[in-house]
Design brief:
Strand order of the largest sheet: 1-2-3-4-5-8-9-10
Number of helices: 8
Structural class: alpha+beta
Distance between the termini: 97 Å
Radius of gyration: 29 Å
CATH class: Mainly Beta
Order of helices and strands: HHEEEHEEEEHEEHHEHH
CATH architecture: Beta Barrel
Length: about 325
């Protein structure tokens, strides 16, 4: 089998580098926030300045919906990691930029025996990088100071995103890029726009930290997240491409009718519906001191001293005058 179709390492390195760069910045911000010695030295200092920015990191599950998820079964595997920066703009409105690296997969072998999907016998795995911009609407008004926020703060959000996806499949022990193999005789982009909608709730842990639970559903503008959309190719680039396109012989004759129907040019997927995916996330959110962006240290606010001034003796005053 030819290695021309093997997974493009440069593409993989590109989005992994972008994601790792963002995560490094998020981790740096979190560590810088935790290490604010002025907060540790002076308990009152954090009460006198509001904080409208926060950073978060999270993980959770990702579930794809398309031709190769026959039962629309929701995954419970940890298959994502994310980093985000959020700003509170108005009493009920916020904005967030978020980067997520996640994996999705689908398999026809989960379909019922003798079904068309089982006879088709296709599968895919995909490592994805997703960059999003969200507008957040909070259901409760802002309390006025971040440290006096609600114990539970529910919200809704929507926005737009840009998704890099790269479906692959294995032949033997080797993975191949299905996009490059052109299993349906067409080429398609490795990027697509997305529209996320979601809901979540923030739970206050302490003055500086939230634990956020979030569910989001993502609409895409492609039907090729799984490399399955329309019809079988009538011409193939080579034997490897043909083997990745038509895999019915790997399971034998499950259903004679469907087996005979699967031919070059016959139906392979359903192009009437675009692919989608669902994510369930758990995130740790930390509020960022405003001085982090200005480069100035946070002012130390000292408690007023209520000790009475000591009276000086006449002798000491005389010595001072002579000096």
């Amino acid at each position: 089998m030819q290695r021309w179709f093997s997974v493009n390492n440069s593409d993989r390195k590109t989005f992994l580098h972008l994601f790792w760069t963002l995560m490094q910045k998020a981790i740096f911000i979190a560590l810088l926030f935790i290490s604010q010695t002025s907060i540790a030295q002076n308990f009152l200092s954090w009460q006198f300045k509001d904080r409208y920015f926060s950073a978060s990191i999270g993980t959770g599950s990702s579930t794809y919906f398309g031709e190769l998820n026959f039962k629309d079964k929701i995954s419970d595997d940890l298959a994502q990691i994310s980093g985000a920066i959020e700003a509170r703009l108005l009493s009920r409105v916020g904005a967030r930029i978020e980067a997520t690296y996640f994996t999705i997969n689908g398999h026809d072998n989960q379909a019922p025996d003798s079904s068309f999907q089982r006879q088709r016998n296709l599968s895919f795995n995909s490592r994805n990088f997703h960059l999003q911009l969200h507008t957040i609407y909070y259901l409760k008004k802002y309390q006025g100071d971040y440290h006096r926020r609600w114990a539970m703060d529910p919200y809704l959000f929507t926005g737009g995103g840009y998704l890099f996806y790269n479906p692959t499949a294995k032949l033997g022990d080797e993975s191949f890029s299905l996009r490059q193999a052109q299993t349906e005789g067409v080429s398609y982009d490795k990027w697509t726009f997305t529209i996320p909608i979601g809901a979540g709730a923030k739970f206050k842990v302490n003055e500086f930290t939230n634990l956020n639970v979030e569910v989001s559903y993502h609409f895409t503008f492609t039907d090729y997240l799984d490399d399955v959309s329309n019809t079988y190719a009538t011409e193939f680039l080579n034997e490897t491409s043909q083997l990745l396109s038509d895999r019915k012989d790997e399971v034998g004759v499950v259903n004679p009718v469907f087996y005979d129907q699967i031919q070059p040019g016959s139906e392979r997927g359903d192009p009437s519906k675009k692919d989608r995916f669902l994510q369930i996330s758990l995130k740790l959110e930390l509020f960022i001191p405003p001085e982090l962006f200005s480069g100035k240290g946070e002012p130390v606010i000292r408690k007023p001293s209520y000790r009475k001034k000591q009276k000086t003796s006449p002798k000491s005053e005389t010595k001072k005058d002579k000096s």
